[in-house]
Amino acid sequence: MVIAPPMAIVAELTHRCPLQCPYCANPLTLTRAAGELDTETWCAVLAQAAALGVLHIHFSGGEPLARRDITTLVAHAAALELYTNLITSGIGLDEARAAELAAAGLDHVQLSFQDSDPAENDRMAGYPGSFAKKLTAAAATLRANLPLTANFVVTRANTSRVADMIALGVSLGATRIEIAHVQYHGWALENRASLLPDQAGFDAATAAVTTARETLSGRVVIDYVVPDYFASQPKACMGGWGRRLITITPAGLALPCHAAESLPGMVFPSVRETTLADIWTASPAFNRFRGTGWMAAPCRTCPERETDWGGCRCQAMALLGDATATDPVCALSPHHAIMAQLRETPATDALHYRRMTAKK
Amino acid sequence: MTTALTDTSVPRFPRGVRLRLDDIREAWIVLAPERVFVPDEHALAVLNLVDGARDVGAIIATLAETFATPAAIVGPDVHDMLAGLANRGAITW
User: Angle B55-B57-B63 (CA atoms, 0-180°, nearest 5)?
Assistant: First the structure.
């Protein structure tokens, strides 16, 4: 089997972050600064990625601006003709920083918002004053002549404000807006009962996106990320295991998806010891759920098996305790009823904020 | 871009979108935020003429000459293709 090269790398440069969002997809056990890859190693990884055929590099985290070498890494990636995307909370993105990153060759900024309402944004971020800093970051991005995506994270607390979020994104000059329901991995899974919308809230959010897409057609691209819990067909998680993407953790582990460390019994290769090409083509971890050979019924004979690739392995693990099962999001899963049970679970208000010291 | 596409519109790649040759896959590709477009040969012929200076009419005239096809036949295809790419954020004017 010829393995097509990966399209993108998500470079989780650090787990350090000034925000404490309880929906964070980072693992519960976070890596400290001393455990992070150094500049030289990241530069070597970027060169290997370009040679392997990677096109997009997403600098993420944590907060990637917490890395003092972020401009160096952007410049290195840009020189390799990689498309560079900075995924940021906006904290620390002032005018000088934005200009420096633009000069280094940064292609695009994705700025996250927790809400369109300032007080609610700051409450969800666990950081008073963060909303105002995000507005500053958006203005700095535009002044540096960088294209802006405004990303709004949807939870049960803000499904009624999706139209306001889109209006805010437009007013900030974003040419792309992401309305992204939380994906329930890591900290988000811990907080699911406090974050997952009910059906009415989900429907309201979807309707607001549909309306705005008509109004803004041809001016602003709106991407809508739905929560699996309301679907009957699973997503091809990350475009399929080992098909499109490599996530690299702050400590240097290469993962087929950012939540893959939640799967028991897996050993993930490190970029400190193995080249990306070897990791991509030869590592047991990337081959474990690649293709269709690993599938059991009902996936094995399903006509959709090369469309959704069996859905999300981490979700099968989290909800069924079996990483090899059909994603229970699928209506054909014998366990699909669990999704309705979870949607109807009474909501709670308690939020466990993301902290460096894991709560367990 | 606030107006409908006409023959006097000047299409260009917006900030954050670029056309490049992918050496590994041996194909021209359009890179955009969170997106990769692989243009077919017709689309690529149009995109190679998008330089922020030529208007749509000039692009159509050039293609009509190159492919020895009447502009009246090339024109609607060029308009449809550019409008479709604009909806996906890959082209503006």
Answer: 105
